[in-house]
Design brief:
Length: 137
């Protein structure tokens, strides 16, 4: 899996989430919207990986998580997001919604409003987490 694959998957997962919500399947929509963020952050991590460079073992191990905040730290974007959040309360609200997601979300039942909130937090044009991440991948 390379950076371009992760970028493609991130875009595809948010599209699938929107489709599932329209089809009345909010639990899958919620999960896939959050998963699109995971893929986007991992694309940011891949951008920082130099070709032909032997990777740092600790960084590699920390990349194998599903926690958005932890992945953002591995991508060296956590502080930058915190600065952006201080300048934009709606971006902060979006991030707070995303922080409620985990890979364990797939085992839960989510309401239409939960799924809509996640999709909006992830995909909103100006204050969504995905557009913010796309500027860094």
């Amino acid at each position: 899996m390379n950076r371009a694959d992760l970028q493609r998957l991130s875009r595809l997962r948010i599209q699938e989430a929107r489709s599932l919500l329209r089809a009345g399947m909010p639990s899958g929509a919620y999960y896939l919207a959050g998963y699109s963020v995971e893929c986007a952050i991992k694309a940011c991590i891949a951008k920082e990986t130099q070709r032909h460079e032997f990777p740092d073992k600790d960084r590699v191990q920390k990349s194998y998580t599903h926690k958005p905040a932890d992945l953002l730290k591995v991508a060296n974007l956590y502080d930058e997001l915190q600065r952006a959040i201080r300048a934009n309360a709606r971006l902060e609200a979006s991030w707070n919604v995303v922080l409620g997601w985990s890979e364990q979300s797939r085992y839960s039942t989510w309401s239409r409003s939960d799924a809509y909130a996640m999709i909006d937090a992830v995909g909103r044009r100006k204050e969504g987490i995905l557009p913010w991440l796309q500027r860094h991948w």
